[in-house]
Amino acid sequence: MTAPQLATKDLRRVVIAAAVGNVIEWYDFYIFGSLAALLSVKFFAAGASGSALIKTVGTFTAGFLIRPFGAFVFGRIGTAFIGLVPSYAQIGAAAGIIPLFLRLIQGLCLGGEYGGAITYVAEHAPDDKRGYYTGWLQTSPTLGIVVSLVVIIVTRETLGTEAFTAWGWRIPFLLSLLMVAIAIYIRLQLQETPIFQAIKAKGQTATNPWREAFWSQNIRYVLIASIVVIGEGVVWYSGQFWALYFIQQVQKPDVLHPAIITGLALLIATPSLIFFGWLSDRIGRKPIILAGFFLASVTYYPLYMALGNAANPANINYPLSILIVAIMVSYVGMVYGPIGAFLAEYFPARIRYSSVSVPYHIGNGWGGGLVPVITTAAYVTAQAAGLSMSQSLGHALVYPIAVPAVAFLLSLFLMPETRKISIWQPAEVRAGARG
After folding, report:
1. Which of 90, 102, 101 is nearest to 45 (CA)?
2. Buried b vs exposed e over 125-139: b needs ≥16 C-beta within 10 Å?
3. What is the chain's Cα-based Rg?
């Protein structure tokens, strides 16, 4: 079995087809998180300081926690339905319960999406460019956030603050119906990968991939991959999503300025995902991912302190605020850019889809998904207790700092370098290189 000799334009088409569907999927997922500050007053009763926001972020987090159990089953209709949920003033406590149920459905839908996308791209790319091409795919979640922020900003500016707050916030959710049609069309254009076609022709597909992936010696590799991805997930959500939530806390109740700062920073730093994916083809996946863990754990506190001062509503320093968030998103590029290639190379083709999906969603769904609610709850609680911003950040950043630090130490000894593992070799040949 040899790698397919695809022309550059054909490889580009493969990446775009997989990435566009992912962007739409992540737009659906992140639109809720991007509007958390506003939704907190729509779906929950006013209570102790910050309690409604914590409940809203908790509802957002629920979608992450269920992701490891998910598959592409229910479609994306849950996002549009959130745009139709009545407010707390209209139906009481049910206004908070219904979005929670819909978020769980969204989490299940997203659960099976990434494994298929990354496997599809990885199995079309040549061994020496896998990090580069999967790095392009890795931009799709970040671009999904950007699209959600752009839609929010345009809708708010078009309708005006009053109308947007009253009813216009529903429009970004309802727009997902159009995006569903686009995503379905794109998915229908995709064909099976060359590797899967070859092993299917030879009758070598796994009869029970879940059992083979998780009830055999492969479980050791799944656990090691999960450790790496948990660290990656925490860096990802600490550098992107909690940056948005933190600026919202500094600038409350403003929605526009935090969205502009975060959106521009994401656009500036998104190429880092491609760059570090490409660099991992040259020097390896492991050193770049470990460097991202290390930098995040030692610099988050000073960076967030500087961001809090730069985003002060009395005198916003836009260039500095954007630069700080862009630096943190570049850490995301270091840990997330090479991770797709690492996971695809780490597991054999017959069980790759399942083996890649579960560690990815454990790491990002549980490890990273807990970041918004833990950090927001800690920060809001500390602020309500009268602590200073520096003290509140000390409480909030314990989890985002500790997890990458632990992941760095464990991965230093457990994580193998997969750059020179060819996914085109038979499983028995590749086994020795997995560590």
Report:
1. 90
2. bbbebbbbbbbbbbb
3. 21
Q: Tell me the average pLDDT across 206-212.
A: 51
pLDDT score of 427 more than 80: no
Q: What does the alpha-carbon distance between residue 140 and residue 111 come to, in Å, rounded to a whole number?
A: 15
Look up the pTM and report it: 0.79
In this prediction, what percent of the chain has a pLDDT beyond 90? 33
Assigned token pair, 224: 């090691």
With beta carbons less than 8 A apart as the criterion, state whether 374 and 41 touch. no
The reported pLDDT for the residue numbered 206 is: 46
Amino acid at 132: Y
Amino acid at 27: Y
Residue 109 contacts residue 76 (beta carbons within 8 Å)? yes
Are the CB atoms for 331 and 235 separated by under 8 Å? yes
**pLDDT tier at 255 (50, 70, 90 boundaries)?**
confident
Q: Identify the DSSP state of 108.
A: H
List, in order of start, the domains of the chain with CATH numbers.
8-434 (1.20.1250.20)
The answer to whether the CB of 99 falls within 8 A of the CB of 173 is no
What residues have CB less than 8 Å from 162, skipping those under 6 apart? none
Q: What's the pLDDT tens digit per position in 296-329?
A: 999 999 999 999 999 988 889 999 999 999 999 9
Residue with the bigger pLDDT between 357 and 132: it is 132
Instruction: Give the residue from 143, 417, 431 showing the smallest Cα distance to 285.
Output: 417
Residue identified by tokens 């969205």 is 259
Cα distance between residue 194 and residue 123, in whole Å:
7
Of the candidates 80, 367, 407, 113, the residue with the CA atom closest to the CA atom of residue 236: 367
Q: What is the DSSP code string of 39-75?
A: HHHHHS---STTHHHHHHHHHHHHHHHTGGG--TTS-
- Whether residue 215 is predicted with pLDDT greater than 90 in this model: the reply is no
> Can you tell me the mean pLDDT for 69-77?
41
- Show contacts of 396-399: CB within 8 Å, 24+ apart: 396/242, 396/246, 397/238, 397/300, 397/301, 397/304, 399/234, 399/370, 399/371, 399/374, 399/375
Backbone angles phi, psi at 35, to 5 degrees: -105, 15
CB within 8 Å of 246: residues ≥ 6 apart? 304, 307, 308, 375, 379, 396
Residue 246: name the closest of 231, 232, 262, 230 by CA.
262
Q: Which amino acid is at 435?
A: G
